[in-house]
Recover the amino acids of this structure.
């Protein structure tokens, strides 16, 4: 049976080791260690050139497979299939190293910040996340950084191998015609929803008050008070305040430009003037330089937004809504140019299905706030501005657009062409990846723990 509307077979295998750090994983699957009281014996079970596969990698994914099986026994070859997928991931990394395929530090940082924000949102707060793992947020991020970087490198390798593959409408129809009619999936109600977000702009008075407070703290530090003590008392950065404002070592381009530029102008022990960034106002102290890295501590103050600030954003968004309803501006154009949510703004404002990347969202995957808003809406209508809080806790307003509402149905080319085309494209990319694996699996050194010697690793056909 050919399955579609799910991640393709090859993509499942290539991403299996990365499920634990996926932005859609639960907090318990974060992949950055285990809660207090849980101990796991670890060890190397496979080597692909200088890349290693740990027993804990395999065990974590196997546990997730068991959870998804809901008590049903897993196939006997499950661990071999997981180990095979992990080895294939390591093959990608090994060849990326040989071919000098790298990702930029700022891309890694951006993806890491996005995922951490998601996990914080899921568990409720940074403090709860730290309590769950009994580790400071800074340490959790450092442990996750390597895994995120590896995933981005693997994705870049996949893009180089199969990124230019495309399908024609004829190929899509042929793909669909090969599917057994009694195996076509049946879909529940799905919707397409767009949003345009506007942040509440901080007023000048609140900014002046934050700057004045930081200047006061700077004067106290210059007069002899301890920076770390004041950071613990006043800093509004929950990730570093408890550490006396200490952020640790970062390389160039890993922190926002305004912060980095101010920090690198200092001598060790020096204090910056007040620095404004997207996060608020900072007072920075450079601690140490080490090669191309540097360590700092800071005190962060975030000017508060008030009702007047939110009302102003709502008025601007209401004007934009009138333009869209009056057909003088498309929703997609407005989202791209005006939305403060760059992730959806770059997609014409459309919310994406995290499972397959499409814009079709099953109702049971919708955020409750979105679900109860669109529940009574007609297709094509747009809400008035609604209060909204972003993933990083900023006050905002947004409008929601119900683009489509597809009733329950069996898969067909008319209603589900995009999904079928995506599945056909995945199948074609899989073949390109299979050919690449067949060509390259014999070019690397492979060593497997005797316990798994019966697993056929680095085979092209899975």
């Amino acid at each position: 049976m050919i399955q579609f509307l799910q991640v393709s077979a090859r993509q499942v295998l290539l991403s299996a080791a990365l499920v634990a750090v996926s932005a859609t994983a639960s907090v318990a699957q974060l992949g950055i260690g285990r809660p207090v009281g849980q101990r796991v014996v670890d060890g190397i079970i496979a080597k692909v050139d200088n890349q290693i596969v740990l027993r804990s990698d395999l065990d974590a994914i196997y546990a997730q497979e068991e959870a998804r099986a809901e008590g049903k026994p897993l196939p006997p070859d499950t661990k071999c299939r997981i180990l095979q997928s992990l080895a294939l991931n390591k093959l990608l990394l090994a060849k990326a190293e040989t071919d000098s395929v790298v990702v930029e530090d700022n891309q890694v940082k951006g993806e890491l910040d996005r995922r951490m924000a998601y996990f914080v949102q899921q568990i409720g707060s940074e403090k709860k996340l730290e309590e769950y793992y009994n580790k400071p947020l800074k340490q959790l991020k450092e442990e996750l950084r390597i895994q995120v970087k590896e995933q981005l490198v693997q994705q870049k390798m996949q893009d180089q191998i199969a990124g230019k593959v495309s399908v024609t409408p004829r190929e899509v129809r042929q793909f669909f015609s090969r599917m057994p009619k009694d195996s076509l999936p049946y879909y529940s109600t799905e919707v397409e929803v767009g949003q345009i977000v506007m942040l509440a702009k901080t007023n000048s008075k609140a900014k002046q008050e934050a700057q004045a407070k930081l200047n006061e703290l700077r004067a106290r530090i210059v007069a002899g008070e301890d920076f770390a003590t004041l950071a613990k008392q006043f800093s509004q950065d929950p990730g570093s305040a408890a550490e006396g404002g200490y952020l640790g070592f970062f390389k160039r381009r890993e922190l926002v430009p305004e912060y980095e530029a101010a920090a690198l102008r200092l001598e060790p022990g020096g204090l910056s003037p007040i620095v404004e960034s997207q996060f608020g106002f900072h007072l920075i102290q450079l601690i140490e330089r080490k090669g191309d890295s540097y360590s700092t501590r800071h005190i962060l103050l975030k000017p508060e937004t008030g009702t007047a600030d939110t009302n102003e954003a709502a008025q601007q968004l209401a004007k934009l809504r009138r333009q869209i309803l009056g057909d003088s501006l498309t929703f997609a154009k407005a989202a791209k140019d005006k939305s403060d949510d760059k992730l959806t703004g770059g997609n014409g404002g459309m919310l994406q299905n995290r499972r397959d990347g499409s814009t079709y969202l099953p109702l049971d995957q919708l955020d409750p706030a979105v679900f109860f808003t669109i529940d009574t809406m007609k297709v094509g209508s747009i809400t008035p501005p609604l209060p909204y809080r972003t993933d990083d806790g900023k006050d905002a307003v947004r409008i929601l657009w119900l683009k489509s509402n597809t009733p329950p149905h069996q898969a067909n080319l008319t209603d589900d062409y995009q999904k079928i085309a995506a599945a056909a494209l995945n199948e074609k990319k899989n073949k390109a990846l299979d050919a690449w694996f067949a060509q390259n699996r014999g070019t690397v050194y492979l060593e497997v723990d005797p316990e798994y010697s019966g697993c056929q690793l680095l085979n092209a056909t899975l």
Notes: Residues 1-29, 33-41 have pLDDT under 50 and may be disordered. Residues 87 and 386 are 48 Å apart (CA to CA). The radius of gyration is 25 Å.
